[in-house]
Amino acid sequence: MLSLTRLRFWGRFADVYGRQKYSKEEGMIELLRKRRSIRKFTPEKVSPEAIEALLETALRAPSSRSINPWEFILVDDPGQLGKLAEAKQHGSGFLGGAPLAVVVCADSSKTDVWVEDCSIAAILIQLTAVSLGLGSCWAQIRNRSHDGGKSAEAYVQELFGIPERVKVECILGIGHPAERKIPLAADKLQWEKIRNNRW
To answer: Tens of pLDDT along 127-175?
Structure first.
């Protein structure tokens, strides 16, 4: 069953080189194919129109019971971006070279699924960035360390004056790509992780 499912998917959507045949209705899968983590950006600023689209995306993100616990901090000040680059010991340095960052956080007192709600909003922002010709990368903040005595979350909370009840999930660095990564070929996907009707 799995091999048949795979062959049907393969025939409809992709070949080994990642070249796809798709209709307008299949636009989302094309964005997913193109999306790669981009950590190098050109100096070009993100246009106000693109920023508006990214923020609209964030505010349209679905959330459990429509509570919308998320909050977003837009950062384009080079000094603040440089400080965000030091948020954790590894994996946040690229933010210093990004022209734009979005801090994705949520009021944890409103819901117990704020992590999920933030994650949905964050990936939708990243996919919208792809649709606008922009690149992005996710810097995980929740459950990460800034240094031996402080969490990355506490560091970001202090930097922006975020209340303690408002938790920080991640920071997205966004900009015009200064590196090119080819889409992952369809035959490299982990098809063995898909099962039919049972484990």
So the answer is: 999 999 999 999 999 999 999 899 999 999 999 999 999 999 999 999 9
Whole-model pTM?
A: 0.86
Does pLDDT of 24 surpass 80?
Answer: no
d(CA 134, CA 31): 12
Q: Quick one: tokens of 135?
A: 């690149």
Distances from the Cα of 174 to the Cαs of 36, 67, 180, 186, in angstroms? 12, 26, 14, 26
Task: Outline which parts of the chain fall under CATH 3.40.109.10.
Answer: 48-175
Radius of gyration of the chain (CA): 19
**Alpha-carbon span 196 to 199, nearest angstrom:** 7
Cβ neighbours of 188 (radius 10 Å): 10
Give the Cα separation of 199 and 49 in Å (integer).
46
Note the CATH architecture for domain 48-175.
Answer: 3-Layer(aba) Sandwich (3.40)
